[in-house]
Amino acid sequence: MTMDNFLLEQFEANRARLTSVARRILGSRGEAEDAVQDLWLRLNRVDNARIENIGGWLTTVVGRLCLDALRARRARQEDSIERLEAESGGAGPVFAATGADPADEIAMADSVGLAMQAVLERLVPAERVAFVLHDLFAVPFEDIARIIGRSQEATRQLASRARRRVQGARADGGVDRARRREIVDAFLAASRGGDFAALLTLLDPEVVLTADPEAVRLGGQARARGAPRVAQLFSGKAQAARPAMVDGAVDIAVAPGGRLLLVLRLEMADGRIAAIHAVAEPAALLACDVVLLDDQPGAR
């Protein structure tokens, strides 16, 4: 067997695991596949004699590629937030469709859960890489430290901090029902009134909005991140939305004429909305216990 054939065989043997690692870190099937493809190109350029452990080398390099992708994504988001803050006088649709693949959102929700996915989106890149590689794929801290360019102790601390945030993720974020209702009423009032500043105070700075495929079909956006972006999407909208008890928690429902079309499942942290999950798939709605509540359009 030639060395080229050996490398190809080893790469293919590890491809599924590498793709899984990249998808968990990046949260995107397309970006994960791009990272693995880039990994293959790099493997073909490296001095084969220098690779002692092909599996470890592949994991290390794909981790670095994902870290670079997360940092680039964060920089783009910060640029986008600055532009949105400057343009906040306009109002777009509540769920403006984008090119994001909704299948990615469902696959990630199935694999890590909505709550964990939302928390992962709020972690800084190094935290996210350290947590995913160590806690989900059992990569030693010694290897992770080389990937993120930190000491082993600093890497342990990053993973520990991320783990606490993931384990502490709760749908209500410790907010009692009365306070949760106040936040929901204020969010609906600010949305309907186009009060962008009020929306920003109600949303966690790193809030994540996701939508299932049916919500996207109805005109939704598969994913948005950051308070300015999410506030822009809701400002001046939500006219048909109402507060509702959804599986025992105060959330938001859209049910014109009493026909349930969509629910917004909310996650809260420190008295703010940290994640919004738009659910419109008929099977998912049937599985929800939804009770519409009296609306308070003037609430603040």
From TrEMBL:
Which domain of life, per UniProt?
A: Bacteria
Pfam families for the chain: Sigma70_r2 (PF04542), Sigma70_r4_2 (PF08281)
Any GO MF annotation of the entry: DNA binding
Biological processes, Gene Ontology terms: DNA-templated transcription initiation
- Domain (RNA polymerase sigma-70 region) spans 11-74
**Which residues belong to any copy of the RNA polymerase sigma factor 70 region 4 type domain?**
115-165
Q: Which InterPro entries match?
A: ECF_Sigma-70_Domain, NTF2-like_dom_sf, RNA_pol_sigma-70_dom, RNA_pol_sigma70_r2, RNA_pol_sigma70_r4_t2, RNA_pol_sigma_r2, RNA_pol_sigma_r3/r4-like, WH-like_DNA-bd_sf
Subunit architecture: Interacts transiently with the RNA polymerase catalytic core formed by RpoA, RpoB, RpoC and RpoZ (2 alpha, 1 beta, 1 beta' and 1 omega subunit) to form the RNA polymerase holoenzyme that can initiate transcription.
Protein name per the record: Sigma-70 family RNA polymerase sigma factor
Look up and give the organism this protein is from. Answer: Scleromatobacter humisilvae
